[in-house]
Design a protein that fits this description.
Blueprint (H helix, E strand, L loop, with lengths): L1 E5 L3 E3 L4 E8 L7 E7 L6 E6 L6 E3 L7 E6 L4 E6 L8 E8 L12 E4 L3 E6 L1
Parallel strand pairs: 2-11
Antiparallel strand pairs: 1-3, 3-8, 4-5, 4-9, 5-6, 7-8, 9-10, 9-11
Length: about 120
């Protein structure tokens, strides 16, 4: 199983960025897909998650209304559209696949397959 993130970059506050996550070695449609992030000196936190059907999503309060997660089943790709980014969004962003979807929370223990991360830096 291989999960690979891309799209991280240096962006100015207020700008936009789209992260991508591709997966191989698993049946894409059988998994819930999530984005986590970890800033230096801080614990990893859940950002967003989407159910395998694409009809249910979860967002952390810190990103609600600014970020959007989506699936492209044909491309086995998950996206995280980041709008109106803030300096506090600076972190390494990780994509993960898991067999359990929770509508009201996001737990890293539910996810077994992780990518190596892509760095997002937001300048003020």
């Amino acid at each position: 199983v291989q999960v690979v993130e891309s799209g991280g970059d240096l962006v100015q506050a207020g700008g936009s960025l789209r992260l991508s996550c591709t997966a191989s070695g698993l049946i894409f449609d059988n998994y819930a897909w999530a984005w986590f992030r970890q800033a230096p000196g801080k614990e990893r936190e859940g950002v967003s998650c989407i159910k395998w059907s694409g009809d249910s999503t979860y967002y952390a309060d810190a990103v609600k209304g600014r970020f959007a997660i989506s699936l492209d089943h044909a491309k086995n790709t998950v996206y995280l559209q980041m709008n109106s980014v803030k300096p506090e969004d600076t972190a390494m962003y990780y994509c993960a696949a898991g067999r359990k979807y929770r509508e009201y929370t996001l737990l890293s223990d539910d996810f077994l397959n992780w990518g190596q991360g892509t760095q997002v830096t937001v300048s003020s």
